[in-house]
Design brief:
Mean pLDDT: 90
Helix content: under 10%
Shape: globular
Strand order of the largest sheet: 1-2-3
Distance between the termini: 30 Å
Amino acid sequence: MSEFRTCPCCGYRKGFHIFFKPVKDAHHMAFICPQCGQSFDFGLVIKGLRSKSVRGPIFE
């Protein structure tokens, strides 16, 4: 797969938001187009995520 930056549904070209969906003892990491809302799941699985996030730096 080449770079996944442009939404194949609406053509938005500035990247995606991500979300984490809990599945058993892990989380699926998937992508959402910020323009049309279409989600994409490539089967990325992350184990060991904390149940609550910790705030980090603010980027501007």
